[in-house]
Amino acid sequence: MYLTKFDSFSKPQLFFLFYGLPQVGIKFSAEVCGIIGIIFLGGSYMAEGFSGGLAGVSKTQIESGLAIGLSRFQLARYVIFPQGLMLSVPAFAANVIFLIKETSIFTVLAIPELTNTALDLIGMYYNTNEYLFMLVVAYAIILIPLSILLTWLEKKVRYGTFGN
């Protein structure tokens, strides 16, 4: 249920948190609303990735664990979770990159972030191309090293355990 309800957490939900809840006496700062939004959105996508990793564990591995006498807890601890986590690393890596790019949704709460700052500068100085180029460069500076690191981690996990 969590996955289906929060995987589309977006602007309307942020509006509700920031503008709707104060009407009933619950007030959060813009930053807290943004963090709550990213937690719900990121949590649902990460849970989906982990769910896929757990589903990817071979049935023969599970049956082998049961055949050697592992309890359900031991099976989960020693067989299912370690392999499921390793299978989930590519999804986690993609979700980290996605969540960094998704922070532009904070614009609706007037939280300063890269896209909002670039749009403000464009509005003040009318240098659209220069500021959009700087926006792309800023995202590249953040995302390219992170992407390289996460790709390295994926390869390390894939070849370091039971992978291809």
From TrEMBL:
Which protein family is named in the record?
Belongs to the binding-protein-dependent transport system permease family. HisMQ subfamily.
Q: Which InterPro entries match?
A: ArtM/GltK/GlnP/TcyL/YhdX-like, MetI-like, MetI-like_sf
The record, for Pfam families, names: BPD_transp_1
Q: Which SUPFAM superfamilies does this chain map to?
A: MetI-like
In which broad location class does this protein mainly occur, judging by the first location in its UniProt entry? membrane
Q: Where in the cell is it found?
A: Cell membrane; Membrane
Please give the PANTHER family that the UniProt record associates with this protein. Answer: AMINO-ACID ABC TRANSPORTER PERMEASE PROTEIN YHDX-RELATED, MEMBRANE COMPONENT OF AMINO ACID ABC TRANSPORTER
Q: Name one GO cellular component term.
A: plasma membrane
Transmembrane residue ranges: 78-100, 131-153
Membrane-related topology note: Multi-pass membrane protein
Record-annotated ABC transmembrane type-1 domain positions: 1-154
Task: List, alphabetically, the PROSITE patterns matched.
Answer: ABC_TM1 (PS50928)
Give the protein's recorded name: Polar amino acid transport system permease protein
* Stored Gene3D superfamilies: MetI-like
GO biological process: what's one of them? transmembrane transport
Superkingdom per UniProt:
Bacteria
